[in-house]
């Protein structure tokens, strides 16, 4: 059965897009469609040019043995701004203010489409850091970290607040929560990260940066190198965080519990 | 600028596949490509037939106002079997046995590609249950639950082991862990689920079923209806679980700590 060009293009696009950052050898498609590699190269060029012109992402061709083709998420700045504006708009709803001055945002960050978008934005912003792992601390940052890991095609690592028996020997550290000043514990299974690895920290929220600082220290114990820190929301105050280089997508300027006013805006320095 | 047929097909496939279960109105594509709806209907038919013939998923056309086209993940049984065989093969590695008779599996279930596959398998198996939410208990089940939620395009809900101040008023229940016999707590923010909702429980592991039973009880407090329970691994023993209808993808027959033998197999009754 002969497969038409438009059919090959639909199938190849589906397979590439669904496996971001995975290299597919042309032999794979060649066998699947019983088509010559030169034909497939033309198909892939069409897909590449289409994604380029509609700003839907990047198709890369990797030459040589072990080479092939892969899709990579890459968002243009305009789309990032629009998406972050939409999210901050939702977060400004006065009904989200919780006693204590917190904002209820789990429905937003646990929405698969929003988490997917945030993951692709982080993947775009940290692409050049080439992390080996995306790491987070349980619990609320996990969906965002998972979607970032998926967009970059690297394993997710979850640091626990206590060490669980089902993960074998673990490294634990104590750290001081920057906002509450309380001593807390985080731990990670020994075998979760290999020495010398490059890790990207992703979390939902940063106030003083105590948790991120704790992860930095824990990664030191593993001999791993933190190549980036991305958070969905960082509070403006305190200005001086416990970590230096971090990338917040949104800035929470203030929450007024009495009026329900939430002043949150996209980070203008993305 | 005129957009060619093969280019429209690449772009439409990308957009549909990346947003499973989201209905796109033809007007959207019509504006994007400045093409007639009849032309787009032909393009979509080609995509539909291609995904059909390569068993890559389903394209559905929804008629009427508010109608349009959507992509839905749907795996054939052969691909499900091969994927589960691969995963159980990896889990049989003697190096995974941890003191206490547990198996280290976080690297597998936190791998984005594996979690993606498991999410699509659950989405395939539970498609007819039409859940409004996918729900899990922190922590290890979250990546699988997130990927299932994404494949079905419904919100993820995470039950906490303690109630956090940042989520407002919460409902807590105590339950007895079926395997340890200890009393544990789980809690969920009041606003996380609306009454009358249909929920699908997804978790990584089930032994006696105490956690699933706890979720069932908690959902009762919310007036929500549990329409399915999916777990990646269920132990064969105890045969009588605390919940009746659950779907395990893999069955863990036994773990021999002395020899490092892990007897785990795909569920033959999928």
UniProtKB/TrEMBL annotation, chains A, B:
Pfam family, one: Pribosyltran
Cited InterPro entries: PRTase-like, PRTase_dom, Pur/Pyrimidine_PRTase, PuR_N, PurR_Bsub, WH-like_DNA-bd_sf, WH_DNA-bd_sf
UniProt keyword Transcription regulation present: yes
GO molecular function, one term: DNA binding
SUPFAM superfamilies per UniProt: PRTase-like, Winged helix' DNA-binding domain
Keywords attached to this entry: DNA-binding, Transcription, Transcription regulation
Keyword field contains S-adenosyl-L-methionine: no
Entry's Gene Ontology BP terms: negative regulation of DNA-templated transcription; negative regulation of purine nucleobase metabolic process
Listed Gene3D superfamilies: 3.40.50.2020, Winged helix-like DNA-binding domain superfamily/Winged helix DNA-binding domain
Span of domain Phosphoribosyltransferase: 114-246
Start and end residues of each Bacterial purine repressor N-terminal domain: 4-71
Assembly information from the UniProt record: Homodimer.
Family membership noted in the UniProt record: Belongs to the purine/pyrimidine phosphoribosyltransferase family. PurR subfamily.
Annotated PANTHER family: HYPOXANTHINE/GUANINE PHOSPHORIBOSYLTRANSFERASE, PUR OPERON REPRESSOR
Protein name: Pur operon repressor
Species of origin: Koleobacter methoxysyntrophicus
